[in-house]
Design brief:
Elements (H helix, E strand, L loop, with lengths): L18 E2 L12 H18 L13 E7 L5 E8 L8 H9 L7 E6 L9 H9 L3 E6 L9 H8 L3 E4 L4 E2 L1 H13 L1 H9 L3 E9 L17 H12 L3 E5 H7 L14 E5 L19 E6 L4 H9 L3 E5 L4 H10 L4 E4 L3 H10 L4 E7 L27 E8 L2 E7 L13 H7 L10 E4 L17 E4 L5 E4 L2 H7 L8 H11 L4 H14 L8 H19 L1 H8 L5 E4 L18 H31 L1
Parallel strand pairs: 4-5, 5-6, 8-13, 8-14, 9-10, 9-13, 10-11, 11-12, 17-20
Antiparallel strand pairs: 1-7, 2-3, 2-4, 14-16, 15-16, 18-19
């Protein structure tokens, strides 16, 4: 359904001067302040839309799209909107086009971020081009190098006018819109620039700077409203990190508790594994828990944790930096630190904390030995203090929330020469030189190989009827329960089949498998690779560009880079079985044989003609 959105009357100061950076851009010197104000407002609206799924799905690149056109009376109105709900779901641009319909022709599309555009995923660009959109305004370029500038180039090659905030359009309101675009994808920008997940340190303290009484009692410092905000912060994160002392003192659950949606993994950092045998975090029925520890620590306790279903990851030297690098490799975009003062100080000293959320309660507890939010940092002069930037103050119930960045949000300006330009200069330079090709998240260079990628395919459902499955993961998870004559199993099959995203399908399937293993088909362990292969084969046969991409990897080893899935993935140190990579290489081999056989037949026919 099309949505109407009007800015109404805009009161712009007469002194506001807006300009374009180039006389050849669409926004030439004739562009009025009012026109640029509309551009800024609609792009900012796209950024607001992009944030709508936060807390309900795992963190992912946030895309929003607004399509606006002029009405008969000359007023600019929105005719279509959309946002990416989760990785592997319908692109924002396609949603907006479907909502706008014929009104797309000659309209302007506003995107908070350049869409993904590569050989195997051109849906966002194609949707806008085929709908007849005439102009595209983009907030920021895509921060990932293999996607950066690709969609912009594709739009321009199709004759669309493209303006990028901060490059083609400049004025105060544009700067404000650009800031919104940076903030909504801050996790992705930090990940691309710093090679670690976006890390937020959160704590609640009394007015005199204490996070607990001298006894260690800390329930509750902040108000119920503040704690609700913390649940929201958790829902926006891939993982929540605490130290061993927090487990011993508070026995936390670290759940999001917002009635559904994304539940972040709980992570405990403990060198010694001096942890209680009974703890809420060892219950992994709904939410997984990972323990990060030093290599060799308390082997017997590690076995105990493993028996509970808790993942244990050993590091040669345990510190916040190596854990963040590890979580980066696991595909994490955002991490929330809810630790005590000692671990907080270590994380701050490591330089991996990017933002701070401090809830200050109007209470005084006192106590010479009462703990503070941050332990020893080794600073002796006030000039050494860490200063927050872009600080915001917000009253939350009786508390005051002070938030700000320790490091500016990375502004990834265009890199020249780009990989494509370098390759044109020197053909021997290739972005994919390694003989091993890794893939994991759908936004990776080879992310289309993932079972989570958005490539709908027609395959039978439980009743044998042909159904358009949204992804390989939907099909795989549902078929765990295929053929089971039980109402719960049948209901689960349908729920997975209709899941809004591959992520949700995986969550539903895994949860039911944990809670009701009796409902999983008895031959699943022997059949699951066949089920996955059938789905992969259908996916690649449906999309010729995917087949071309797979064939282009001939001679390379394909590795699914999930560090924690030791069956489908390669594991952290190559200890995984990498069955997804193996199945793709098997499929590649079949496709190559078929291709060679076709070429041989064609050659014979040509020879006979001669």
């Amino acid at each position: 359904m099309a949505m109407a959105f009007s800015l109404g009357t805009l009161n712009l100061p007469s002194s506001l001067i807006c300009r374009s950076s180039s006389p050849t851009s669409s926004s030439s010197s004739k562009t009025s302040s009012l026109s640029l104000a509309f551009d800024a407002a609609y792009t900012k609206r796209a950024a607001e839309l992009a944030d709508k799924s936060a807390g309900f799905t795992a963190p992912h690149p946030n895309f929003g799209c607004v399509i606006a056109t002029e009405s008969a009376d000359g007023e600019k109105v929105v005719v279509g909107e959309g946002y990416l709900y989760a990785q592997g779901t319908t692109p924002a641009e396609l949603q907006a086009v479907e909502a706008a319909g014929e009104r797309c022709r000659g309209a302007t599309a506003y995107l908070n971020m350049e869409p993904s555009h590569c050989l195997v995923d051109q849906s966002a660009v194609s949707a806008l081009v085929q709908a007849g959109v005439a102009r595209v305004v983009i907030g920021i370029r895509h921060p990932l190098h293999h996607l950066r500038g690709k969609a912009i180039g594709a739009f321009r090659s199709e004759g669309l006018v493209v303006d990028v905030l901060g490059e083609d359009l400049h004025c105060k309101t544009v700067e404000e819109a650009l800031k919104s675009c940076h903030l909504v994808n801050a996790p992705l920008l930090y990940r691309a620039a710093c090679r670690v997940p976006f890390s937020v340190l959160k704590y609640a303290m009394t007015l005199d700077g204490k996070i607990a009484a001298s006894s260690g009692h800390a329930s509750w410092i902040s108000s119920k409203m503040s704690r609700s905000r913390v649940f929201e912060l958790r829902g926006r994160s891939d993982a929540v990190i605490v130290g061993g002392n927090t487990v011993r003192q508070d026995n936390p659950r670290l759940t999001a508790r917002h009635g559904g949606g994304h539940l972040p993994q709980r992570i405990v950092m403990s060198k010694s594994l001096d942890l209680p045998e009974v703890a809420n975090l060892w219950d992994v029925t709904e939410v997984p828990t990972m323990i990060a520890t030093q290599r060799g620590a308390k082997r017997s306790f590690q076995k105990f944790l493993a028996s509970k279903g808790v993942e244990v990851v050993e590091f040669e030297i345990l510190n916040p930096k190596v854990v963040m690098e590890y979580l980066h490799d696991r595909g994490c975009l955002s991490v929330l630190w809810e630790c005590g003062g000692t671990l907080a100080a270590s994380a701050l000293s490591s330089g991996i904390i990017h933002k701070v959320h401090a809830f200050v309660a109007p209470k005084i507890i006192g106590g010479k030995n009462a703990p503070s939010p941050v332990g020893e940092l080794g600073m002796v002069e006030m000039t050494q203090a860490l200063e927050l930037i872009d600080v915001h103050y917000e009253q939350v119930g009786p508390d005051m929330l002070v938030s700000g960045f320790l490091q500016p949000v990375p502004d990834l300006t265009p890199v020249i020469p780009s990989v494509d330009e370098t390759s044109a200069i020197d053909p021997t330079v290739s972005p994919y030189e390694a003989s091993i090709i890794f893939f994991y998240k759908t936004w990776d260079p080879y992310g289309a190989f993932s079972n989570f990628s958005l490539h709908p395919m027609k395959m039978p459902d439980e009743n044998g009827d042909i159904y358009m499955w949204p992804s390989v993961e939907h099909y795989y998870q549902a078929y765990k329960f295929a053929g089971i004559d039980d109402p719960t199993a049948k209901s689960c099959f349908e729920d997975i089949k209709n899941a809004k995203s591959p992520e949700e399908a995986a969550r539903l399937g895994r949860r039911m498998q944990r809670q009701r293993p009796d409902l999983v088909r008895s031959d699943w362990e022997s059949m699951k690779t066949s089920v996955m292969y059938e789905a992969l084969k259908c996916k690649f046969s449906t999309y010729p560009n995917l087949t071309s991409m797979l064939l282009s990897t001939a001679g390379s080893v394909l590795v699914e880079a999930s560090p924690h899935d030791l069956f489908w993935g390669g594991g952290r140190d190559g200890e995984g079985l990498n069955y997804l990579g193996r199945l793709l290489m098997q499929l590649r081999s079949e496709l190559l044989r078929d291709s060679n056989a076709s070429n041989t037949t064609l050659q014979k026919m040509e020879n006979e003609v001669r």
